[in-house]
Amino acid sequence: MSEPKAQKILVVDDESDVTELVAYHLKAKGYQVETINNPNSSIGLARSFLPDLVILDVMMPDLNGIQICRMLRADPKLKRIPIIFLTAKAEQADRIAGLETGADDYVAKPFSTKELVLRAQAILRRASEGAPSAERRLQVGQIVLDVDCHEVSINGVALELTATEFKLLHLLMERRGRVQTREHLLINVWNYETEIETRTVDTHVRRLREKLGAEADWIETIRGVGYRMAERKSEACSI
To answer: pTM score > 0.85 for this model?
Structure first.
């Protein structure tokens, strides 16, 4: 019986000491790793390597991480690949911009390699694991979520969601009518058991609502607590 193929990770950072350090620790965990220090060549490498995850520095010359993230999300072959941003610790704006652009997570520099590896493992796990729900097709209003096909549509028109957005929407639809705290969402969507900024949740919910368009009102904001999928359209409003 052949062993399963190692998951592939692409590390993009203009500092060679960073890519070498990250690659060393990821390879030690059994991942297949490619690194690149020239951001201008990163999209070409991503197309040929087709990674399962991209770890991407924000502050790089010529082509920064935000721009590369947008290019990845616009490419039909690469748009579903999860992305972790490496950001300068003081640059909160970079972290928020990265999440709004389509990144799934961020790790602040200077970072712990152990933390980065754990974040990578969590994202790869949730991207590959099957959904636990016995109900394989969920519908709220005109939103239809097909678990087996990993697709979401509104009025028959498919939506382009990242793996994190899909899992977030799935959890809210599956637990419709029940309030999900930000902490609960961090544990069940992001697989985090340690403290992290709950603004990560707010940013992803805002981005998900934008993609849902006219159906966005189904997601209620429970101020100071979290979110829930409304039971009835008339209830679907921020409170």
So the answer is: no
Contact 229/176 with Cβ under 8 angstroms? yes
Strand partners, 190: none
The answer to whether residues 180 and 172 touch, using CB atoms and an 8 Å cutoff, is yes
Dist. CA 205–CA 97, nearest whole Å = 14
Q: Are 83 and 104 in contact (CB under 8 A)?
A: yes
Q: Are 26 and 117 in contact (CB under 8 A)?
A: yes
Between 3.40.50.300, 3.40.640.10, 1.10.10.10, 1.20.1250.20, what CATH number should domain 137-235 receive? 1.10.10.10
Q: How far apart, in Å, are the Cα atoms of 179 and each of 55, 143, 205, 221? A: 32, 19, 14, 9
Residues 152-187 pLDDT 10s:
999 989 998 888 899 899 999 988 988 988 888 887
